[in-house]
Amino acid sequence: MMKNLENIPVEQRRRTNPLAHVFDEFMAFCQSRSLFMLHYCTGCGAVELPPVMTSRFDGERLGISPMVSPRQADVLLVTGYVSVKTLKRVILTYEQMPAPKYVVGICSCTVNGGMYWQSYATAKKLSDYMPVDIYIAGCMPRPEAVISGMRDLMEKIRTGKADSWKDYFRNYDHYLGQQQRLFGPKWQTPTDIIGEAEHYGLITKNTRGEHTRLLEEHQKRLEPLEMRL
Amino acid sequence: MSKELARWMDDLLQEIDTLKFERKNERRVRVDVDSKSVHSLLELLRGRASFVHLSAISCVDWIDEGQFELVYHIWSYEMNTLVSVHTRISRDSCSYISVYDIFPNCAFYERDIHEMYGMYFEGSPCMDKFILTEWDGPPPMRKDFDSEAWVNEHFDWQDYHPDWLQELETQGGGIAIHPEEQRFSRRNKE
Amino acid sequence: MRPENYEAKRQPPSNEFELNFGPNHPGIEGNYAFRVKVSGDIVLEGKADAGYLHRGFEKLMENRLWIQNIAITPRICVPDPVPMEVIYCLSVEDLCGQEVPARAQWLRVLQMEMSRFAAYLFYFGGLGSTNGMYTPHYWGMADRDLILDLFEELCGGRVYHIYNIPGGVRRDIPDGWLERVSSTFDYLESRLKDYDDLVFRNQVFIRRTRGIGVLNQQEALELGVTGPNLRACGLPFDVRRDDPYLVYDQLDFDLPTEDAGDNLARALVRRADLFEILRIIRQVIKALPDIDGPIRAPIPNPLAWNVPAGETYQRVESSKGELAWYVVSDGGDKPYRAHVRGPSQTHAVQVLEHLAKGARLEDIAQIMFSLDACPPEVDR
């Protein structure tokens, strides 16, 4: 069925409706006011998220609400240092989220490794592996700082500047290269990023490259994960 | 009661020639013992002196002497005393016998030492990787593994060059410190 | 993940299924995974999978100065950080043979008990959520924030305080702080009645937790269970009483116990513990104004501080159980080895795997929360 869909020619038409921009702005406004966030508790910062969401600071009055499944989430909160083992899961989660999607890096550790800069087990720069919209620095940032950062993100979404998710499709080769450097050349995820990039019309000359060729060499049909008990 | 028990244990342990006994304070005892007699000592302490709680097993890498030191910390709820049983194992052979039949909660600590130091425990219920399942380097807690070198090889650092800093750097200043010049980042090697 | 990328693996027909809990799952405490094999909704076997929060603390500490390490110690257990600071300071003081001034010791006790109270409120919130009751979570968080505000006034940090340093504490308490501590805990005590109505006398909670995750005394001792979880099996052991540190031998407090050893007993022990914590805090508040003197013993230049060679094993009681550190010094300016023994290393791995056998699938999260497992302590 997917094969048939690919054959349908997609025509890029100019938008002639004068109200189109108004409609876009309205859409962006609505999007910025209902953010479902998937908070992946990667580290210490997760302990300041319950205060943000509960009675005292009440993030829900801003339209921010937690969501348990990546398939329905808009925002991925990476709360704290990302160990290499977690990073694989974070990338899987990120790729499962539907576009438009936004990434917020909380704590200093996502910026530059923080106080674990010497550690062999934690990844240092989150933006090497996925595009990040907002960093909230601090160790750990207070709930007020988290709310302020989320408001900055809302403003970015409203003005249409939060489009870093497109970077992932446009520069997929770069991001994949960084991932392969850390996880080894056989690293692969179940999501077909290049297919999605085609779907969104975001293929550039940096989408494919040597790293995606390496991925295609190693790619095999996925089997259900085998578990030993 | 517990005072008498403690005195009895002190007397007994001092009489055994093959072990070195040292009472550090009221509730801490250090025992140095040959690696062959650890299990019989632990069994004796557990069975006859109610040391039922294995608090932890620590491993220390004495790289200059080519030895691993294993420390079994056991606690008696009746005598309120903690006995630390120290033993040394050659760094080359790197394997030892599990105490799983004496203290069943040793499984986590032995598994941890196995993946952090590469020491194998015969008879332990599970020696699979636990924390470092996605790690294929050498056992990281060994002294000869240089964490900083590994990090520099595998990760990039965030560039931070705002205008004000560039201005300073053109005048010969700046906040960047080369790793070789960082005083506190490495162990002194003298 | 597209269906056409998948090829179903041929496997013999069976009614057993394998299921992953976590690492990112609302029913799991923190970043931790638990894999279960189920038949129907009965769990046949479970395996813990840790390491998602591994930072290599023990390696990091070997590469930092004694004084630098204070900053990273509280990060080992996030909900209850103060015991980690205190135990590291106790270890260094023991290696140096340093005496801590009395006032600093009483201040440390006060902090530890405040931190324990905050951790228990966090615990009730988590345990309530696993039973579908979200109000305790909201209340517990709001009440915990009052304690965090006191900490913030004391040292500037909400969650990580770094108030203790080897030799004492960093600075004396602000003016009028003790009265505010006193009034805050008076308020919190008045709230406990509401918690009773909401959780501990609630039939939903009682029926949901009674008889689930039962641990008998012998299993508990064999598996090395400590702290409130051991007291829930009827064994009144506590490091504060049996192996006293700081000034706990001068304080008057009881060790509440329960006999059942199930999830309800574990929650009730902690609830009864809250009153003991209040008792200790009141004693400290009463005694502290009369204890004058320095808050810190002089330490040498911390940037060139060589701690004498030796080894020490220190234990304290954290909100989760027995917390112990083994610290070795070779006479250098950095620790030669620091080994962390957290209570969750037992509770979250072997005890959880043991209790999961035969439990029902919907109870796994509840058992994990009731054991008060703290994943960062397991991974370090």
From TrEMBL, chain B:
<feature type="domain" description="NADH:ubiquinone oxidoreductase 30kDa subunit">
    <location>
        <begin position="31"/>
        <end position="148"/>
    </location>
</feature>
<dbReference type="GO" id="GO:0008137">
    <property type="term" value="F:NADH dehydrogenase (ubiquinone) activity"/>
</dbReference>
<dbReference type="Pfam" id="PF00329">
    <property type="entry name" value="Complex1_30kDa"/>
</dbReference>
<comment type="similarity">
    <text>Belongs to the complex I 30 kDa subunit family.</text>
</comment>
<dbReference type="InterPro" id="IPR001268">
    <property type="entry name" value="NADH_UbQ_OxRdtase_30kDa_su"/>
</dbReference>
<dbReference type="InterPro" id="IPR037232">
    <property type="entry name" value="NADH_quin_OxRdtase_su_C/D-like"/>
</dbReference>
<protein>
    <submittedName>
        <fullName>NADH-quinone oxidoreductase subunit C</fullName>
    </submittedName>
</protein>
From TrEMBL, chain C:
<dbReference type="GO" id="GO:0005886">
    <property type="term" value="C:plasma membrane"/>
</dbReference>
<keyword id="KW-1278">Translocase</keyword>
<comment type="function">
    <text>NDH-1 shuttles electrons from NADH, via FMN and iron-sulfur (Fe-S) centers, to quinones in the respiratory chain. The immediate electron acceptor for the enzyme in this species is believed to be ubiquinone. Couples the redox reaction to proton translocation (for every two electrons transferred, four hydrogen ions are translocated across the cytoplasmic membrane), and thus conserves the redox energy in a proton gradient.</text>
</comment>
<dbReference type="GO" id="GO:0048038">
    <property type="term" value="F:quinone binding"/>
</dbReference>
<keyword id="KW-0813">Transport</keyword>
<dbReference type="Pfam" id="PF00346">
    <property type="entry name" value="Complex1_49kDa"/>
</dbReference>
<comment type="similarity">
    <text>Belongs to the complex I 49 kDa subunit family.</text>
</comment>
<dbReference type="InterPro" id="IPR014029">
    <property type="entry name" value="NADH_UbQ_OxRdtase_49kDa_CS"/>
</dbReference>
<keyword id="KW-0874">Quinone</keyword>
<feature type="domain" description="NADH-quinone oxidoreductase subunit D">
    <location>
        <begin position="132"/>
        <end position="297"/>
    </location>
</feature>
<feature type="domain" description="NADH-quinone oxidoreductase subunit D">
    <location>
        <begin position="305"/>
        <end position="380"/>
    </location>
</feature>
<protein>
    <submittedName>
        <fullName>NADH-quinone oxidoreductase subunit D</fullName>
        <ecNumber>1.6.5.11</ecNumber>
    </submittedName>
</protein>
<dbReference type="GO" id="GO:0016651">
    <property type="term" value="F:oxidoreductase activity, acting on NAD(P)H"/>
</dbReference>
<dbReference type="GO" id="GO:0051287">
    <property type="term" value="F:NAD binding"/>
</dbReference>
<dbReference type="InterPro" id="IPR001135">
    <property type="entry name" value="NADH_Q_OxRdtase_suD"/>
</dbReference>
<keyword id="KW-0520">NAD</keyword>
<keyword id="KW-0560">Oxidoreductase</keyword>
<dbReference type="InterPro" id="IPR022885">
    <property type="entry name" value="NDH1_su_D/H"/>
</dbReference>
<dbReference type="InterPro" id="IPR029014">
    <property type="entry name" value="NiFe-Hase_large"/>
</dbReference>
